[in-house]
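#structure-requests
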Amino acid sequence: MVLAMALISCIPGGEVAYGSPLFVAGWGALAVISLAVMVRRRLYRRMALFLFHLAFIVILAGALATHLWGTSQSLHLRVGQTDFVGKIPVTLVDFRVEYYPGTQAPSDFVSTLEIDGSPAVVAMNRVASAKGYRFYQSSYDSDGAGSVMTVTHDPIGIAVTYCGYVLLFAGMLLLASRHFRGFRVGRVALLALAIAAGGAERAHASPPETLPADVAAGFCSLSVCHGGRVVPLSSLARDFTRRLTGSSTYRGLSAEQVMTGWLFYYDSWKSERCIKIKSADSRRALGIDGRFAAMADFVDPIEGYRLAESGHQDANEQFSLVSQAAAGSLWRLFPVAAPDGSMVWYSPVDGLPDSLTAEQWTVTRHSLNYLAELSAQKRWNEMDDAIDKIARYQHRVAAGALPGRAQTVAERWFVGMGGEIAAPAAMMICGLLLFFCPRRRVAYLAVAVAVGWVALLLLADYVGTGRVPMANGPETMLWLSLFALLSGLCTSRRQPLMLPLGLIVGSLALLVSAIGLRSPQLSPLMPVLRSPLLSVHVLCVMVAYALLALIALCCAGWLCGRRQLIFMARAMLCPAVCMLAAGIFVGAVWANESWGRYWGWDPKEVWALITMLVYCVPLHGGMVRFVRHDRGFAIWNLVAFVCVLMTYFGVNFILGGLHSYA
């Protein structure tokens, strides 16, 4: 079944095979064989394992019920229109788009319905139910006067499947209560859940003209609407500079100086070769030598415009960014209270509402022009005073929508540290020294622990700013780094070599995150990702991946002669598989509450299931002779880690799908 799923996931359009009679028969045979083995081995005498295995059979039974009797249809209604779902009349009373506070970025889509005479509300991650039918928000009309919903009818399949989930989590709790007794890895998940609750410098010529570093930093302390939330302008400057140049600095200039340079000194920047081009197609279009197609090069805005006009997507976004920065549309610095009580942020070139007072209109339209005059005359003290006036205006109009002082300090701290290679490099060096030089363990242990905790504090501070960062690959890699460090620190007392392994895994994850953050996503968070189940789903999966990475390193160490590491690898395997299973099925519940189906055979879902099944094999050493001995166990887990890499990276870059953002 694992090989079949892996093959089908790589075939374009092959997902139809998952519902074929042959594939359904394969799952049925697997369930029957599993049940027979459970009875033969009298697994019912060991309640935790019995519940854990019985859960998968019940989940498969629920999937079969959904396949045979479940239905799904699309329902399109205009405001005031009535249609029938079965024999139930459904009327769309109202539809509205809700926005992030202080922005015009959609945060939710809400349909107010009347279902069989009773009021109901359907929104993203909010389902309405009536007489066995479930209504999910899926789309809406462009004029805002119509809504498209998915309506499912699967009372038997959902009930049976959710019973399987309950059995699964009950079995996991019983296993955890026994397995984590005296073992500190169990504290990793608890600590993690507690945390969740609470361009390259150029050597030629002088750089283009810009503001002094202190003035630019003062200007970027203002708040701005960016990425669906209100943040310090320094955060936007960081993302802008990284997207443009591939680095958080450019020719010795800070991100704040780069971004303000495009606003106040456009003539000095318009011929600057600062747009980093990575695409091989774009490079060929510019006539750059193909031998260097894998390397990045810089172009000026005119060349970037030519590439954008030719349809090159990477250059199109970068040229759009510099155009918005120079024209002023990127600078949404000025809040205005909307009639419904929400706060909308405007740039100086946006169309302004008629309800503005004369003061608001003047501040919004002319503040940046006045700052430009002061910068041209290099009157820095007066410019600082003008910036302070804008800050006071923001606090007077939108005090409730502005980030707090602690959040601002934490985010600016992260902005200053997040893109650097120094932290992961230091962690890697300490980890390697500690691993290969055990005689000097005490000295290196102190340094490694200090570096590890500094990294944890950095990540925890970023978690406390705005939304929980779990919406894309670089953000989830931060969590992987966090859990790897926690695992190493929590287990180092029993096995000192676990600390260097945790540092190595954490440094690699942090490095991948830093590379990803060099090309940040500037669009706001999708409404469907604003679910509390997302946090639980990502946390469970990241804990599992961190543990599986440590297991792979322990097995590699065992093969290299560090025999004591195999005990830790075996001890971490059961928690890792349990956390991965929990993450998969919490994700299924989230999908059912958001899209109306708990399993869609998306490539990421398929490969997560493959990974879980592959890692279940070494848990059954009593039945699989190869993994019973240490050598076979180590080899299997090293090879199995390829499934983790495929699930996290391979699906994103090769197969795509709904989860490609993660």
